Amino acid sequence: MTEAQFLEGLSYAEDNFKNEQAPHLHVDKKLIRERFNLDGKKILDFGCGMGGMSLWYATNWDCEVHALDIDGHHINVAKKLQEKHQASNVTFEKRDILEKPLTEQYDMVFLNDVAEHIPLAILGQILEQLGYSLTTGGSIFVTYPPWRSPYASHLNHVIKTPWIQFFPKGYVDNLIEKHNHPLVGDLEGDLREAYDGLNHLTHEKISKLAKGAGLKQTYRKSHSIVNRVGPFKNLNLRVFPLDFLVTKEFLELQKA
Ligand SMILES: C[S@@+](CC[C@H](N)C(=O)[O-])C[C@H]1O[C@@H](n2cnc3c(N)ncnc32)[C@H](O)[C@@H]1O
Asked: 61: CA distance to ligand 1 center in Å?
């Protein structure tokens, strides 16, 4: 990673940490604050990326955070962010839990914008292992943009067209080629690889995997673009075909 990419990653992670209104995180942060008191909890931030949310948990509650990611470059940025803010209650680790399984127990496991990036062939195994690592009464909180959502392509910062993932493949491929660029914080990853790596996650798919992993759903919220309109701010919209308007799914899972 070049120095410039590292610094860009650091500034992105800093914004995710400090900015309560960060575009893809403000709903998540509000909901987590409303729903959970993390004081005294041991937390696993699974797929922590460059650590913005890990630092947010660690500094907003009196908790202990174990943050891990499969990508060592993201972890390097996260460690720098931690050093800068001197948060001693968070530990960052590069780890693939399918190679080196978890041995500790957690009260809360967060998968923040991670599940849609994990191949479906292994997502079930990962959920199963996360379930085993929960303390009694512990929860897994998963947030992700469902595949039918307007910006599920993760391309919207360069290609502004909503639902572009449903346009003809050749057309989308050409657009990606034209706008391709290295991803913030990544060594080799680019927009093309990120798009091709998406698993087209839907509620139906993750529910089936969670059930197979011995987990039950204890909460679900579907945040939609309709929630931006005052009177509808608490509407929990997930009725087909309106689920195309859902921008983010929030799912709480516990041991069945
Ligand atoms: C979009 S980022 C989200 C980062 C962070 N959770 C956040 O909210 O800012 C997705 C992250 O998931 C990580 N990831 C993907 N597959 C993983 C796996 N099998 N184990 C751990 N991390 C994984 C990626 O390396 C990447 O850092």
From this structure: 22
When the pLDDT of each residue in the chain is averaged and rounded to a whole number, the result is: 93
pLDDT value at 251 more than 80: yes
Domain ranges of the chain: 3-147+199-255, 153-197
- C-beta of residue 75 within 8 angstroms of C-beta of residue 93: yes
| Upper half-sphere CA count for residue 176 (Cβ side, 13 Å) | 21
Average pLDDT of span 176-192: 80
* Residue 57 structure tokens: 């948990």
Supply the pLDDT for residue 237: 78
CATH of 3-147+199-255, one of 3.40.1280.10, 3.90.640.10, 3.40.50.300, 3.40.50.150: 3.40.50.150
What is d(CA 15, CA 75) in angstroms, rounded to the nearest whole number?
Answer: 16
Query: How much is the CA Rg of the chain, to the nearest whole Å?
Result: 18
Residue 114's nearest CA partner among 65, 72, 154 is: 154
For 118, how many CA atoms within 13 A lie in the half-sphere containing its CB?
26
Ligand 1 pocket, 73 CB below 6 A?
no
Helix (H) or strand (E) holding 179: helix 169-179
Atom of ligand 1 lying closest to residue 49 CA: 27
247 in ligand 1 pocket by Cβ < 6 Å? no
Q: Report how far ligand 1's centroid is from the alpha carbon of 255 (Å).
A: 23
- pLDDT for the residue numbered 186: 61
